[in-house]
Structure prediction request, 582 residues.
Amino acid sequence: MTDAPRVRVNQVGYLTDGPKTATLVTDATAPVRWRLHQGGTVVAEGESQPRGHDPSAGLDVHVVSFDEVRATGHGFVLEADGAMSDPFALAQDLYDDLRVDSLVVFYGQRSGIAIDEALLGPGYGRAAGHVDVVPNRGDGAVRCLPAVHATTADGVDLYDGWTGGYTLDATGGWYDAGDQGKYVVNGGIAVAQLLGLYERALRTGTAGALGDGSLRVPERGNGVPDVLDEVRWELEWMLRMRVPAGEPFAGLVHHKVSDERWVPLPMLPTDDPQPRYLHRPSTAATLNLAAVAAQGARLFAPHDEAFAALLRTAARDAYDAAQEHPVLLAPDTNVLANAGSGPYDDADIEDDRLWAATELYLTTGDDRYADDLRANRYAPLFRPEGFDWNHVAAWSRLQLATVASALPERDTVRASVVEAADALRAQQATQPFGHPYVPTSGRYDWGSNGLLLNNLAVLAAAHEITGDQAYRDAVLSGVDYLFGRNALGVSYVTGYGTRDVRNQHSRWYAHQLDPTLPHPPRGTVSGGPNSDCPDPVSAALAGSPAQCCFVDDIGAYGVNEMTINWNSALAWVASYLSTGNS
Prediction:
């Protein structure tokens, strides 16, 4: 990655009618000349703007802007200070393929179904995982985690003696990331964003681009929009995760299903020999189901009213169950010596309650849920660090602001989104790499790329609310960072750009370890720089400038994992930026 050119550009390119900005690494204190080339022709030229030292990158930089260029084509190169950029395109349809590819990544994460290489791509086919075929213990009848497995080495019982004598059919759903676990809270935000991008397309009259036959999924041709088919695979699994009637915590949703112990890399899902267990139900998982079932109900209704009715009932029931058990938390199971899954612990679930009330209100219009929205004083709704699976208040607010409803306070809600977007634009203006991700601590969080993408969703919502192109321009400038305009000069999305990452942490997309296995599919986003550098590979980078805390290595799970929630954020933004949708 150190061989990246000093002129850092969006390696995919720039929309013809959007902002066009690059970052030049140089210690020059005065402006320098730049030239934009295509072939042997100089298309434009000008002077750079010195920006001094960027502490997040550890580099001295200038900014080069060529917004006025309206030429189209491929093979453009920016020259400045004796350096040449990677080539890039100028066009209006740059993100159309990414909209499709980022969504098809979810098909590759499916559990319980054979993956067809004719759909995902040559070399990507594999047998169904966790379907009770040896050596799998399978997900057809998963036991509750025995109490002894929830006791730490020093005798702390994380689940307060909980276990259950029942089993659940936990087949289906998406593998969360590069491991074999399936987690309701991470599935929840991913489902919400995929449903959300389709709902936004309905509002903008561009849903045809996401209709039946638009994605490479097995269900294409069934008359249902393909993105809804993909989402249904996860929704049906979430419905299976409910505690049966007559059991303690009946109606709540199990937090996750996972292996007893971590399996090594590489490991295909079909080869996983570990016992599988249901972890204790949680209020957060239950509220996640309530939220996405309510959202799904209104979107599936035109296509499958029976399924929509099932979702509406499930959403109400889950909300009621969460009222009955308002603070049943998922603990940090990383303290267990035999942990085989991410903890996804979350001690603050009032934002989840706000989100569930929001979606139930938007679907039903019932005063009960509007009253609960008003009574919920969760703050802050928006954070400069962005939102994610464990901070969903901002997503709730975006939904309440953009989905039509009779809420009397809707204008106030919409104004709050615009205010949050203005704050992000002000932060973005301070960043010579153009990205609206400025954590208050100065340190980048785990999954910083996903957090950045979700900040872009706030800006996009402000564009939808106001019609002001300045917010769209802010989204475009922020996307540049993901595709190469960053301290390392890499594109964080596989298959996009000259220097794209290809070794995301995954047990089956593990080409780095086994050349017979593929790299992650085209359109897979890496988690990105993480100042904590928490894994053995990235640990050597600890103390580096925030943007430099990254390495494209399969063992670097703390900076370079793939996950469904980061890809859902990418898919949402790609859909927004695709032709005719922004």
